[in-house]
Amino acid sequence: MPAGRPALIALTALAPVSWGTTYAVTTEFLPPDRPLFTGLTRALPAGLLLLALARVLPRGAWWWKAAVLGALNIGAFFPLLFLSAYRLPGGTAAAVGSVGPLCVVGLSALLLGQRPTARSVLAGVVAAFGVSLVVLKAAGALDALGVLAALASTASMSAGTVLTKRWGRPEGVGPLALTGWQLAAGGLLIAPLALLAEGAPPALDAQAVGGYLYLALANTALAYWLWFRGIGRLSATQVTFLGPLSPLTAAVVGWAALGEALTPVQLAGMALAFGATAAGQLGPRARAAGPLGPFSSPFSSPTRKGRKDSMDLTGPALRR
User: Fold this and answer.
1) Which residues contact residue 290 at a Cβ distance below 8 angstroms, ignoring those fewer than 6 apart?
2) How many CB atoms lie within 10 A of CB 140?
């Protein structure tokens, strides 16, 4: 592995680790039953902040490219994520979302010309199995719409990750601006949905304001910048194999901060998922993609406040 690459991987990994804290923040600090409003407050303020810092707007074809990436990575991903989280039993949506690495492997072969290796496919299968052991619990019949939403959210984020790698970024445009474009576009897409489905914003106390500030700044603006920065320097497959760190972080936070128990089976699943994540970083170094410099689960889906079923990680495991 080239010098400096472990540090780059570690910084990129901070994004899904941050997304893994969303469940605890949402259940402990935020108003209940406002998933779209939460998605909006995560995306739009963060996007506007980054745009103000970067002071660069899209030009030419990048207006529609930024809109497409914003829709895939944020605008479509969040609502689909929330829909699956509210319609599926605890952990099921997370288990469905853990097939993200396999989706990216397939899309990378189709759009980037990166031939899948047996190691990457095997690592993807092991990662999905490990995450399933951590988050999946016995449940009744699955809701078909919830399963479709979970699959669609995974496909949306996977496509966004691969297209971000394929298109790179315009010459002279930094990762800060590119991240801001996507967050702002995604937030603008969510805004009318939130207004139509949930009505006026809820009343917020100091605790909720603090929670939303954390989600907008650390959990979204900083985390997505690190994520998209990583996409520019690592292969799409390497980046997406960091995704399982989100549900694993949620499990650790639930155990350490919310008093949730970890069973031996869940610990074994963690070990498998961590091992698969490490194996996913051992692929060959990605070639430079044109002007692409430094630049994908929620990605966390809030669940209802007060739901503290043991290891009910539906929300955070759906990351980004």
Assistant:
1) 168
2) 6
b/e sequence 264-288, b meaning 16+ C-beta within 10 Å = eebeebbebbeebbebbbebeebee
The Cα–Cα gap between 256 and 314 comes to 18
Cα–Cα dist 203/205, whole Å? 7
Q: How many angstroms separate the CA atoms of 282 and 234, rounded?
A: 11
Q: Which residues contact 213 (CB under 8 A, 6 or more apart)?
A: none
Q: Which of 47, 99, 68, 28 is nearest to 302 (CA)?
A: 28
Question: Could you tell me the two tokens for 111?
Answer: 């759009």
**The tokens of 60 are what?**
């030419």
Looking up tokens 């209802």, which residue turns up? 304
Q: Compute the Cα dihedral for 281, 282, 285, 290 and give only its sign.
A: negative
How far, CA to CA in Å, does 215 sit from each of 45, 46, 188, 220, 290?
10, 9, 17, 6, 32
| Three-state DSSP class for residue 251 | helix
Number of Cβ within a 10 Å radius of residue 144: 9
- What per-residue string of b and e applies to 55-81 under the rule 16 or more CB within 10 Å gives b? ebebeeebeebbbbbbbbbbbbbbbbb
pLDDT tens figures, 75-102: 998 888 777 766 765 456 666 667 778 8
Are 314 and 98 in contact by the 8 Å Cβ rule? The answer is: no
Cβ count within 10 A of residue 119: 12
pLDDT at 136: 67
Whole-structure pTM value: 0.78
Selected residue with higher pLDDT from 64 and 293: 64
Q: DSSP string spanning 84-126?
A: HHHHS-TTHHHHHHTTHHHHHHHHIIIII--PPPHHHHHHHHH
